[in-house]
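To illustrate the input format used throughout this study, we show a single complete record. The first block contains the structure-token representation of the backbone; no residue identities are included at this stage. The design step must infer an amino acid for every position from geometry alone.
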């Protein structure tokens, strides 16, 4: 990411707790080595952090020799790692008291996406602060998504990763059951690529057009989905691969509460009905 900024002509002061990482970067790209976070922030209009969690963010920002010691009033700090959004809001309040702006802008995508500047940047912060940082975000990513107030970028990043991680687990479970039943994993993976991410993509085909609009007309009854999940769950149990989570249980609960003939797009009501909030 720093390399992409250097290529776009940004003047960089770089710091890492591993000096060898800084040396390796400066052998290839223009910039100045800072000897501490405060030194990296001295005179800067913006300071970008890519750190593993909010504890590291607080340490780099606020501890002795931290960024805030070097930043001038009016500078903006951008947290592009993935932090707890509640901590992000607290840090933002601390920085605001010092006259320093704060934006959370976590990214989706790995090293390959960072290398060719095709990251997705999820941004939280005031409109003015986001506008101010937009040249940085454009230099780093293919898409900048304005998520809302400070902390909303970190919130969406965590939730998106939750969906991705859940999908990875369910795919592995399904492939394992199929393989043990005798199916070819390559055939299954190829079929699911179409059936699960194309034709039957929940967000594209169900959530956006039906759940979010209240137009529950997907054409599939709750009882049918509950039945199919029961088959998968029972098959996995019989083969020795119990499915994670409570998927089948949730769908049968929805069928019992709303009726088997209710549309499958009614399942979000499980989370909307106060009496089922203990799920």
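Output of the design step:
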């Amino acid at each position: 990411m720093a390399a992409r900024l250097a290529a776009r002509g940004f003047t960089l002061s770089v710091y890492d707790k591993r000096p060898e990482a800084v040396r390796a970067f400066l052998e290839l790209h223009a910039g100045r080595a800072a000897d501490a976070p405060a030194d990296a922030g001295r005179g800067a209009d913006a300071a970008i952090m890519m750190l593993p969690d909010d504890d590291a963010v607080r340490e780099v920002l606020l501890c002795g020799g931290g960024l805030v010691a070097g930043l001038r009033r009016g500078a903006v700090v951008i947290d592009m790692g993935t932090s707890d959004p509640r901590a992000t809001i607290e840090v933002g309040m601390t920085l605001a008291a010092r006259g320093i702006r704060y934006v959370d802008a976590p990214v989706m995508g790995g090293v390959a996406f960072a290398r060719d500047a095709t990251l997705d940047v999820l941004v939280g912060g005031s409109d003015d602060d986001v506008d101010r940082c937009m040249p940085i975000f454009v230099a780093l990513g293919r898409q900048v998504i304005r998520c809302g107030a400070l902390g909303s970028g970190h919130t969406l990043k965590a939730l998106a990763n939750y969906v991705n991680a859940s999908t990875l687990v369910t795919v592995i479970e399904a492939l394992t059951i199929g393989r043990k039943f005798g199916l070819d994993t390559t055939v299954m993976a190829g079929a699911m690529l179409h059936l699960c991410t194309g034709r039957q993509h929940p967000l594209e085909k169900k959530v956006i057009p039906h759940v979010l609009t209240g137009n529950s007309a997907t054409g599939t009854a709750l009882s049918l989905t509950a039945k199919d999940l029961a088959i998968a769950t029972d098959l996995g149990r019989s083969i020795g691969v119990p499915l994670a989570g409570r998927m089948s249980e949730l769908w049968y609960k929805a069928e019992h509460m709303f009726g088997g003939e209710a549309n499958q797009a009614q399942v979000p009501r499980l989370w909307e009905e106060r009496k089922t909030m203990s799920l």
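Structural context for interpreting the output: The radius of gyration is 24 Å. Strands lie at 13-14, 32-33, 46-49, 76-79, 101-104, 107-108, 119-124, 141-148.
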